[in-house]
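Bug #77: duplicate submission created two jobs. Keeping one. Sequence:
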Amino acid sequence: MTTFVSRRRIAGAGFAATDLAARTALIDRAESALRGATGAPPQWAWFVPGRIEVLGKHTDYAGGASLVAAVPRGFAVAATPRDDGTIAVTDARWATQAVIEPGTTGDVRGWARYVAVVARRFADNFPGASLGVDVAIASDLPRAAGLSSSSALIVAMALVLARRGRLDTRPEWREAIRTPLDLAAYLGAVEAGRGFRGLRAAGGVGTKGGSEDHTAILASAPERLRAFTCLPMQALGEAAMPTSWTFVVMTSGVHADKAGRVRGQYNRAADAVAALVELCQQAAGSHRESLAAILAGERDGRRLRELVVRSTHPAFTREELEARLAHFIAEHARVCEALEAFRTADRDRLGELTAASQADAERLLGNQVPATMALTRAARQAGAFAATSFGAGFGGSVWALVEGHDVESFAREWECAYRASMLVQGPLEWFAARPAPPAFEVEDI
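Kept job's structure:
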């Protein structure tokens, strides 16, 4: 098969040399799928990565900090316009197709739901825009593994439709979305069904999350870790990835489909944060809208702790609210400490921080399952100096940091230790990664 995009363009994006061939092949696969579905060549193409949440479990929607990095795996996207207003998307990986009419309603299931949410929101927020397009996607992200495949698809479709409709030329877009961080915040609102700066709310995918994933996908940097808050959206700092360190990511074999099977559990963690904010607003007269903002004010933070101790919330026990508050305070604080540990290549400190993060996720947040707990322990047993689960939880993956290792040997030992402890059946996926580029448009078609 002839590669349709120059290797030089992909190399210039900032991928590690070991990832270049696979990225080029993935883009080629999307282009081939588009030609097969339409007979037409692509007019536009993008690469949209997944992400690792290094630290910051369930902090973003509470106004807390997250430390993130894009990974070299993700979605290749090829697209060409059509004149009838229909959005037709072909998934090259699973040989399936979704056809969405943006102006219609109705239940859409599976991965097509994410396409429909973006299409319908854009049609509502930017009336009259020409959104008709044929799209092909090709992904090598493990499904429902905590690597943000769902948000990556949201971002991918947003980039396609924004280009097709020339939305960045419209006054309502220019007023609300001025930077990549603004776009990340808006797409977090699209996914969650919230309004954003005058762009009114519409139905999301059913999860009550924040914008951490979209921010990592749109605003990461190759070879660097970056820390952000999302309420308000702000870059906190960055650190270079030490040259001898490598992330190894392994799936647990338990899917973490936050918009499906585990949605209720995921949303309960968000609802507990909302309950804490409401408690302070109603009883203490606070006007602060995020948990982080409440805790940043000495008076409000003290009052919130006092209120939680004597709370009688209809949906949460006092113990549940105390645990949720304690988790947020500890995890939020760990992010900047971890950023400094990366800056100074402090392996021991990162090991301590990730061990504490994992323990608090198990004990306080309650979003871990036996598989993710065992997989984290197995990573350290196999020689990782830092390891933790990440993402929504209730399944998913674990990242491990290794230095100077034969990565394949480490991964084999890790998998063997995990299978021995859990009697795991079926295949597991793993890959090595250094921080990768954010989403970018492939220009040399």
